[in-house]
Amino acid sequence: MRTKTCLTLFNRLNRFFLKGYVCLPQPTFNVASRQFSNAYCVWHTVGALCLERKPVVTQELTPLEQRYFQYLQKLEIEKSYLSDHEKRHLEDLRIAEKLKKGEVEDMDTVSKQTAQDFEDACIEEFNKYKPNPRITEADKTNDRKSLHRKLDSSLVLVVKQKLGNDYRWILPQTIHQEGDTLRQVNSFVDAHRKSMFRLRERSHQ
């Protein structure tokens, strides 16, 4: 009874501490010698590959950042000097007033394009621009295999691999073989990942 209790406690501790690893120690009890014999697992060095897609667009401003941005804009308007465009606009108004009174003798001093004309052209050009949506079709359908989603965040490639008796979402990895460098191991992981993606693409065609 005491031996059975020890074995049960030992198995529970192993499952708690070593769950998810490549292998688990399997203790055996020799009845003749009344001694424990542990078949310890072998630890392996693995090479993993981390593929990251950087953000494509800037992140949305937080409420605090929005308030700070509005404060800076207000401060700039209150304490800033006139820009070249604003000075040009005032000069155009002054010349237009002289034209009404007939005080302008040299018409060469009159600009062919006023500051207002330039501003209207810029606004018209800006209205033609339509930014791409931040929410893509992959976001709407929750397609986690697509790179065209979560454009303002970083994405990391993970694969489902078997560790011990369970399947875990981890970085693509493989066991290091004796004689290979870690660079060669990672190259193998990359080549294997590309071949798997090609097989998936062919199966969907």
UniProtKB/TrEMBL annotation:
Q: Which InterPro entries match?
A: Ribosomal_mL46 (IPR040008), Ribosomal_mL46_N (IPR021757)
Record-level GO cellular component terms: mitochondrial large ribosomal subunit
The entry lists its GO molecular-function terms as: structural constituent of ribosome
Locate the Large ribosomal subunit protein mL46 N-terminal domain: which residues? 43-139
The leader peptide range reads none
Gene3D superfamilies given in the database record: Nucleoside Triphosphate Pyrophosphohydrolase
Domain of life, per the record?
A: Eukaryota
Q: What is this protein called?
A: 39S ribosomal protein L46 like protein
**Species per Swiss-Prot/TrEMBL record:** Argiope bruennichi (Wasp spider)
